Amino acid sequence: MNGQSSSTPKDGEYLNFLQEVLLAVHNSNGDPIIVHTILQANLAKLDLHLADVLKIWATEKLAEAQPDQSLFDIGTNIFTFCNLLLDFVLGNRADNIEIIIAGYEIALTAFNRQDFPDSWGKVQTYLGNAYKSRIHGEYANNLEIAIAYSQEALTECTRDRFPQIWALSQHHLGNAYYERIRGERAENIETAIVCYQEALKEYTRNANPYRWSVILKDMGAAYSDRILGERADNLEAAISYYQESLTECTRERFPQDWAATQINLGNAYSNRIRGEEAENIEAAISCYEEALKESSRDRNPLFWGWIHMSLAKAYNERIRGEQADNLEKAIACGRKALEECTRDRFPRHWAMIQNNLGIAYSNRIFGEHAENLETAIACYQESLEERTRECLPYDWARTQNSLGSTYSKHPQ
Q1: Model-level pTM?
Q2: Helix axes 9-27, 32-41, angle to 10 degrees
Q3: Where are the beta strands (DSSP E) in 198-331?
Q4: What three-state secondary structure class fits 263?
Q5: Residue 47 φ/ψ, nearest 5 degrees
Q6: CA distance linking residue 18 with residue 209, whole number of Å
Q7: Please, what is the Cα angle at 264 between 306 and 364, to 5 degrees?
Q8: Strands (DSSP E) along 88-178, which ranges?
Q9: pLDDT band at residue 4, thresholds of 50, 70 and 90?
Q10: Could you read off the pLDDT of 175-194 as tens digits, one per residue?
C-alpha cells in the first residue's frame, strides 16, 4: 500500500481519509476544530482497520523519507493527529485508543532517541498514558505497560535536561500507579502521590496553572482512595485538593476539567466521614448537578454518562427526601448512565453501574418485591462479568457480598 494505490477498495477509502486528516493536521497546525470536523464526518472509518492502514502507510513513508527533518515532520503530524483523536469524544472509544497507540508507536520510530531525545521521551510517556486508557486487552497488563513506558521516558527526560517532559512523565506515571491492579494497593497509591508531588515541582500554579490544577485533581483522587493514614483525614485532604484545583480550573476557562473536578469532589463528599452524612450527600448531589451544566449528552456523552452513574449512587444513599422516590431516581439515573457507559466502551464503569442498580432494585419499595429482587440479582451477575476476582478483587468481593445478601431476601 502506498499513497497512490491500495490492495483493496476499502484500503483506498481508508488511505484517502488518513491522508486527508494528516494533511489537515499539517496545514492547520493541529487546529482541533478543523481536525475534529473531519473525524466526525468519517466516524465509520475510526476502527481497527484504520490502525492497520496507518501502520502500513506510515512505515512505507518513513522508509522513503530523508533523514532528520522529513522523519521528524512525519512523526510530528502523526503524533499531533493521535493527540487530537485522544480528545475526540465521538466514535468507538476502544478502537480510537488502538489507533492512537498505533500512531504513537509509529511516531516513536520517527523520533529516534539519539537525534530527538525530547520528542522520543514525550512519545514514550504519551504511549504510557494511552495504555492506561486502553480498553482492549487485559486491564492489569495494560497498566504495567503504561508504567514501563513512563519509566522509560524518565531515563532520557531528566528534570535538569527536559523539565517539562519530566514533569509530564511523573504525572502520567502517577496516574498509572493510582490505577494499578498488581502489587499492593496501598503502596501503589503512595507511589502515585510521590509522583504527583514530583510533577508539582515543575508544574507550579504560576508556571503552568492548567497542569497544576489537573495534578491537584488527581492528587485529590489519590487521597480519596488512600489506604495508609486515617480515612477521615485523607478524605478531608482530597476535598481540599479538589477545592483548590477549582480556584484555577474554573468553568469559564476549562469547562470540561471543571466538570470532571466537580464529579470527583462530589464523590469525595459522598464518601466523607466528618460532618453530617445527610449534608455530605446533598453536597455530592449539588456537585454532580453543577457538572451536568457543562456535560449535556450531545456535547459530552462520556461525562453525561459518568455523572448519572455518580448520581445513581448518591440517590441510593440519600437520607433526605422520601426513600422510595430516591430509589426511583437512583434507578432512572443508572439506566441513563448505561446508555453511554456501555460494556464495550467502558467496561469498568458499566460494571459499577450494574452493581449500583442491583443495590437500588434490592431495596426498591415500588413494584413487586420478588421481581425487584430478580432484577437486582441479574444486575449483580452482569457486574461480575467484568468485576472478576483476578482483575478487580475488592470490587468483586463487594458485589459478591451484595449478591449473597439479595439471595437471602429472595422468597423461595
Answers
A1: 0.81
A2: 170
A3: none
A4: helix
A5: -145, -175
A6: 35
A7: 55
A8: none
A9: very low
A10: 999 999 999 999 999 999 99
